[in-house]
């Protein structure tokens, strides 16, 4: 029963990290374009 908790935490962390990376990538791309 406790097995799903770490999975959920990992999923949340991965989602937040992915969003942050996407934002950084877009920013870098915009900077590179200019």
Give a brief rundown of this model.
With 34 residues, this protein is mostly helical. Helices cover 88% and strands 0% of the residues.
Characterize the structure shown.
0% of the residues are buried. The protein is mainly α and 34 residues long. It has one helix at residues 4-33. It has one helix and no strands. The longest helix has 30 residues, at 4-33. The chain has one domain (1-34).
Number of domains: 1
Give the tally of β-strands.
Answer: 0
Structural class: mainly alpha
Mean pLDDT: 85
Contiguous helical run count: 1
Share in helix:
over 70%
Fill in the keyword field for this structure.
mainly alpha; 1 helix; 34 residues; 88% helix; single chain; rod-shaped
Explain the layout of strands and helices.
Blueprint: H1 4-33
């Amino acid at each position: 029963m406790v097995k799903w908790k770490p999975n959920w935490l990992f999923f949340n962390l991965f989602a937040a990290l992915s969003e942050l990376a996407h934002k950084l990538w877009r920013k870098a791309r915009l900077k590179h374009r200019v």
